[in-house]
C-alpha cells in the first residue's frame, strides 16, 4: 500500500514538471524580440537598402 502512494506522488511530480515546462514554453513564444535582434535586423536593412557612395 505504501508503494501505491509513492507511485502516486511520483506521477503527480512528473505531471507537475511537464505542466511547468508547458507553461514556460507558451510564455517564451509570447516574448518580444530582444534589442540585439532588432539591432541586427536594422543593420541588415541598412546594408541592403542604403545608397552606395558614387565612385570618384
Describe the structure.
With 56 residues, this protein is mostly helical. 79% of the residues lie in helices and 0% in strands. The protein contains two helices and no strands.
- How many strands, what sense, and barrel or not for the largest sheet? none
Helix content: over 70%
Task: Report the mean per-residue pLDDT as an integer.
Answer: 80
Shape: rod-shaped
Number of helices: 2
Weakly predicted, low-confidence segments: none
Give the termini separation.
90 Å
The SSE string, one letter per element, is: HH
Question: What is the total tally of β strands?
Answer: 0
Helix/strand structural class: mainly alpha
Which oligomeric form is depicted? Answer: single chain
Beta strand %? under 5%
Compute the CA-based radius of gyration.
26 Å
Which features would summarize this protein structure in a list?
0% strand, 56 residues, mainly alpha
Short description:
The chain is 79% helix and 0% strand. It has 2 helices and no strands.
Topology overview:
Layout: H1 2-30, H2 35-49
Amino acid at each position: 500500500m505504501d508503494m501505491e502512494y509513492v507511485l502516486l506522488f511520483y506521477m503527480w511530480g512528473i505531471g507537475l514538471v511537464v505542466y511547468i515546462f508547458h507553461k514556460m514554453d507558451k510564455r517564451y513564444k509570447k516574448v518580444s524580440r530582444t534589442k540585439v535582434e532588432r539591432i541586427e535586423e536594422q543593420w541588415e536593412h541598412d546594408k541592403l537598402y542604403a545608397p552606395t557612395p558614387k565612385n570618384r
